Amino acid sequence: MTDSNPYQTPESNLQEPQAAVPSINMEWTIEGVLKEAWELVSGVKASLWGALLIYIGISIAVSVPFEFLGKESVMIGIIGQIVIALVTYPLYAAISLMSIKRSVNTPINAFMVFDCFSKTIPIFLLYVLMVLLILLGFVLLIIPGIYLAIAYTAAIPLMVEKNMGIWEALETSRKTITKRWFSVFALYLVVMVIVLVSIIPLGIGLIWSLPFAILLSGVIYRNMFGVEQTTM
After folding, report:
1. What is the pTM for the complete model shown?
2. Fewer CB atoms inside 10 A, N or C side of the chain?
């Protein structure tokens, strides 16, 4: 016999609540994504701006020495660009991951910008291959380049959020976004206009528009690819 009471009320783990992970929603609307992204801005502007300032500060700190050294040697200039990429691309990937976390209501903070350095080399190689394919697309009558530039926007987030390989991330991004390519293109076009307009009043509008733009990419990603439980 056991000491358990068959009539005892089941215990619930109230100390560690699990957030619900939204399922894939390929029927999302442009208006719906814009509205949700705007609502998500509230409460996280400081975290996202903190991450952006860290990104900008590190980018400048790494770039400045090579700006001077690169004038003396082409080889040093090339090495400098590689070093800058190795340092800054993981920061960019982490900001993308922050937007995904926020899209499923997971708390974020500015120091999450350092979370993706463990994947520095894969992120760098993915980015290089992605840029080469996009440039090749632009050489081939421009339109293929525009198509790939949008179709590959989720490749780096897929690598860091779902732990995909380089080609798997590129192809998963391309095949999935192709299903709603024109809608994704329209959304990014709208966001670009919003950011540009927000610069006009002394750049004050950027306080809201840049976090909004970052979070919009997270909402698109969540809708089209879903979010792994381990991400939260």
Report:
1. 0.85
2. N
